[in-house]
Amino acid sequence: MKKTKRKRTTREKQAQSQKRRKNILIAFMCVVLICVGYIGADAFMLRHDRPVTGGKTVTLSSGESGKQSSNTNYISLGIPSVALDNSVMLKSVLNSAKGGGYNSVAFDLKRDDGTIGYTSVLTTVDTFGGISTPATHLHESLKAATSQNITPVARICCLKDNVVPKKSSEMALMKDNKVYEDKNGNTYLNPDSEAAMKYLREIVSESYNLGVRVFVLSSVTLPDGAPNIKSGGFDSIVSKIRGDAVDAEFIEAVDVTLNGWDAEEGEYNDTGLKNEIKKLPKLKSNQIYVVKTEKDINEINKKLKSNKLKGYIIYED
After folding, report:
1. E strand spans, the chain
2. For a tag site, which of 54, 160, 198, 230 has the least CB within 10 Å?
């Protein structure tokens, strides 16, 4: 009888052990399923969580040939990409923007030297190794900005690029079987190259999925002396790089410098600044001034506002 009891006890222990292992396996699978669910939800939110656009389109008076000129109402503080860290630096930038009366902040996705200004996971970006002082937490920073009614504006230098053409002749603008360089030694992407346009399109798509909805494009045409290329120009570039960013706003940059030089007095003063502002080129549809200045940017902002200019980004030169 004792022997039978021990056998039963052993079988019971084995059954309990198997049951525990089964429960552990079930619990593990539940954890895995929950994690997968969170990852999927996070990916969905990353794809569909869109910042609210704070700027509005303002229609101005008709320009030459009956064409209507319009101006996007972004009064934007230019900031370094690294400031989008979703931390102390970002809070300081947003406070400065709000304190200065700006409704947006502008940062570089792709700089005019070809470097990338945000943490990208694109294979092409990794291959060319062009990431430099990037926005490390772009998605979170964009959400933080829009929560304070500050619209993020992303700048892309399209064709001028001193990174990619040196590593890919397929994407480079070529002349006499060599990578073309302008008088300053700058190289360019070829707007006729599908690979080059795909590279820009992937940058737009990735940043769009991270939450960018406003893109300012510079260097959409090639410099004088460049090889004769049929493609190029703002509309052509946008049509090639928009991709799935169907509801994004694309604006062309118009570069200007404002320092207030008064030629008659031979000094910098308010009169000189007022005259510089008066001489600014008229903006066409979907254009914005990108202002470089050596002066205090908040003072320049006040002058632009007092002259009723709408649609500009200010960078300290």
Report:
1. 57-62, 68-72, 75-78, 104-110, 116-118, 131-135, 151-157, 174-175, 178-179, 214-218, 249-257, 261-262, 267-268, 287-293, 312-316
2. 230
